[in-house]
Amino acid sequence: MSKRKPPGRPPFDPRRAKGAPTEPILFSQPPADVSPTSGALPPEAAAGARAPVAEEPLVLSVSDLTRLVRDAIKRQLPGTLYVVGQISNISRPAGGHIYLTLKDEESEVRCVMWRSDAALLKFAPADGLEVIATGEVDVYEPRGQYQFYIRRLEPRGVGALELAFRQLKAKLEREGLFDPARKRPIPAIPRRVAVVTSLTGAAIRDILQTINRRFPCITVYVYPVKVQGEGASAEIADAIRRLNAARESLGGIDVMIVGRGGGSLEDLWAFNEEAVARAIHASAIPIISAIGHEVDFTIADFVADLRAATPTAAAELVAPLLVDLIGGLDTQAHRLMRAVLGRVETCRAQLAVVERCEWFRDPLSRLGQKHQRLDETTGRLRLAMSKRLVACRTTLHDTEVRLTRVRPEVQLAQRRERLAKIEHRLRWALGHCNLMKERSLAAAELRLKASSPDRLTHTGRLLLGELDGRLTRAVARAHADRERLVSGMEARLAAGSHEAILNRGFTITRRREDGKIVRSSADAAPGNRLVTRTARGEIESRVESTPSPESTE
């Protein structure tokens, strides 16, 4: 499907600028008097364009031309425009200004948003996001290009606050601030509770009334802050940090309630700020978020350790019912009394069993039995000691017999006998080895005589004489070949030398002045002295005249 080309923009007409609309219009809307499918001029503008100009042409500088274009745009366009487009090439330098490009399917425009306006954005602009930009068109004179200066920026199709909420939620979720593993349990019976909210709202009254009604023993510290409007998020985050820093001096804070009553998304926005979320995440005190009504969800609810649907519900989660606690204590007291009485009865039964035991009825008879058992054990021990002593004496006798066999003189005689046998075997081995070496030596002597130096020298001399003769004959043949080759080359050189050519009747003529060879009549001029060389000498002559080249041809 082909795309329709955008309508052509008419040239600037001062008469039409006077009637420019004062209400904001969309930048993409064409003027009322221009057809959306044609770029033709209005009749009066066309007539003015066809009128002859009798004045002298105006010569402008680049700066003057840029200012004229800027003034024309200022007069032609309204002060506030709404532009719908997609963000691309966005950048935010250290100065805080935002530079971006708004584009659609067919064109694009450079845009600037100053730092003061960018600070009011609730969401983070990003490439690819479709937005509605409110602002005005002006010319950037140093580059001679028009730009759209944005005063307000809103995402198209979703509110700015809703988009900011989604972006911040996704960012904090990636960082792990919503991880259920880091959430801490709320104490069952806290002693001290801190409340961060507004003193003028209904939330503080509901919290205090609920705590006093349910469990008046709790000490409540109220830290008043702004809960909506400019600077509210900073006050809430600062209050959380201050309470964490002062909890030891206050005797310890068991739990903290951060919240407010219901309201619109804008009213609850202070609890959607990143500063509040990070302060809750960094808190060492468990925090209950109690913001708005049951259907309201904020970033603080996801970061807090526990979310309460309303401030009253938060107070009910913190403060248990005193009546229930007292009833529970009574129940525990009755159970404890029954347990103690049961334990006493059990001990009495055990004591009765012990009293019926024989040890307690006649302890002396039990002691006599123990003495008798001790005497029997002593007798068995003495008998065992006697048997053990006899066994040790037998072992000692056997050891003495073995030691007699290994006396030094006996061992020395055995070593001498063994040494004599080894000496006999060694002498026999040496004799046998000498005999074998003598036989090997005789065989080597025979081999050495067979390969004596005299015999090798005689053989070498015969071989050398034969090689000398062969070498002499080869050198003679090579010398004769070289002589025949040189003779042939001399004959060819002599046949081709200039003396041989002169002998055949040819001559060489040179100019005496410079010795240059005369090859044609053009090389000699009248009056030149020439030297002609022949086979038997030289002839000197002088040029009288030379024929013209035409006659020669």
What this model shows, in words?
With 553 residues, the chain is an alpha/beta fold. Among the domains are: 14-36 and 59-157, OB fold (Dihydrolipoamide Acetyltransferase, E2P) (Beta Barrel); 179-320, 3-Layer(aba) Sandwich (Rossmann fold), CATH 3.40.50; 503-552, no CATH class. Helix content is 50%, strand content 16%. It is built from 17 helices and 14 strands. A five-stranded mixed barrel has the order 2-3-4-6-5. The longest helix has 44 residues, at 453-496. The radius of gyration is 64 Å and the shape is flat. The two termini are 86 Å apart.
Quick recap:
This protein is α/β, with parallel strands linked by helices.
CATH architecture tag of one domain? 3-Layer(aba) Sandwich
Shape, per Cα inertia axes: flat
CATH topology of one domain: Rossmann fold
Strand percentage, roughly? 15-25%
Strand order of the largest sheet: 2-3-4-6-5
Radius of gyration: 64 Å
Determine the number of helices (DSSP H or I, runs of at least 4 residues). 17
DSSP, total strands = 14
Helix content: 40-55%
Label this structure with key terms:
OB fold (Dihydrolipoamide Acetyltransferase, E2P), 553 residues, Rossmann fold, disordered N terminus, 16% strand, 17 helices, single chain, 5-stranded parallel β-sheet, alpha/beta, 5-stranded mixed β-barrel
